[in-house]
Amino acid sequence: MTQSTDIRRVALAVAAIGTPVLPLSRGKRPVANCGNCTKSACGDRPHMLAAGPCRCPRPCHGWAAASTDPGVITSTAWLPAWRAAAALAYHPGGAGLTVVDLDDDAAVAWARAALPPTRTVATTRGEHWIYWGTMRSANGVRPGVDIKSLMAYARWLGPGTGTMTTLPDAVRALIVKEPSPVWTVSVPVPAGGGQCPHRTPAYLERGIAMAEQRITEATSGVHAAVYRTFLAVLSAHGRCGCLADTHVARLFAAAQTKGESPRHCTDAWTNARSALGM
Prior knowledge:
Elements: H1 3-15, E1 21-24, H2 70-73, H3 79-84, E2 87-90, E3 97-102, H4 105-114, E4 119-122, E5 127-132, E6 138-142, E7 145-148, E8 154-155, E9 165-166, H5 169-172, H6 201-216, H7 222-237, H8 245-257, H9 262-275
Parallel strand pairs: 5-9
Antiparallel strand pairs: 1-2, 2-8, 3-5, 3-7, 4-5, 6-7
């Protein structure tokens, strides 16, 4: 039995208990489920716009492709993905779960002191703590701690041990942060002692609201629409230090409502800043 066949066998068993699964490559990245999307040739990442955004008739990669349907998992369309697979992943949010990903011993020690016990799964460097309930996913909520739930995937490393408990408020609170500037950039005061127009609340609010609307109204090519909107916002408001976490969070939320993952949002924002030399 080949490794890929064994991974698919485990995938079918995991899917049978209602957990959506997807194949991972050796780099722990999702494997495309069709030839057109192999190695992101479809332009699924915002910085690969030259190839055009992915237009597959159904989700082809990432958390959105995770499935519990044995007919889909064993289909001819997924066969190349399983052949390229080195590991198995699942969509926690799709199974009604949240994974607290603890990357090192210090993070594990923090969890044991701060969080209620639940089912745990040993990982290469730490542990996954799995709770009933879903929430927004986020990386780096504290040193060595990521949250994987809605619109995210986690590596399947076995069922784990212990009794699963309900997602506690202590975990939900990890993604609630006080607003702070994303970055600070010093710019010269306009000639004549005028004030930067971006600091007018109505001006900035109108710009963010228009950006949210542009993303929300995108009917195709969402990856490209998000990237271009981020680029436009940064072009207009990115050099005066006016943007705060609350503004960026609104743009990310609009993008995620259209199906973008937190990783895609972060990539698009980073690439837009790089394109503008920020």
